[in-house]
Amino acid sequence: MGKLEDCTTTPTVDGISKITSPNPDKTTSPPQLHGKWIHSLPDHTIVIYSDGSKMESGVTGCGWVIFNIGNQQLFRIKEGSSHLGSQSEVYDAELHAVEEVISALLTTTILCSSIFICIDNQAAIETLQFNRDNHEYIRHALKSAVQL
Predict the structure, then answer these.
(1) What's the distance, CA 57 to chain centroid?
(2) Could you give the C-alpha distances from 1 to 26, 27, 31, 69, in angstroms and in order?
(3) Residue 87 has pLDDT above 80, yes or no
(4) Into which CATH architecture does domain 41-147 fall?
């Protein structure tokens, strides 16, 4: 099991700073940190996990799951996946998963106080923040997020 990367606060693009690492001395395992974070969230918080992947055959796909927190536990609300074929990259799959999961949230009647989307692809996170390339999946995702 690896250690979390130290993300100390430093200026980044457009004056937005990175968040200080919750594990600067790298002594706590990622699952321990994640569990501590989940237990710190109030009830009615939505936590979303998404991921994109590419098989050795070249086929790309993505999946996502929506959880609601209650009594410091995760309750699965909804999930989905997509096959994107062989012309897409993992980055595209990551962004497509975000677009799909935000659209899926629009069809639920979940009472929520906050929404967190957990993404493991730094390039996808930066695109969500800035969308400099006007990526289609993110345009759709952001439009759906405004509707939320």
Answers:
(1) 25
(2) 12, 12, 9, 26
(3) yes
(4) 2-Layer Sandwich (3.30)
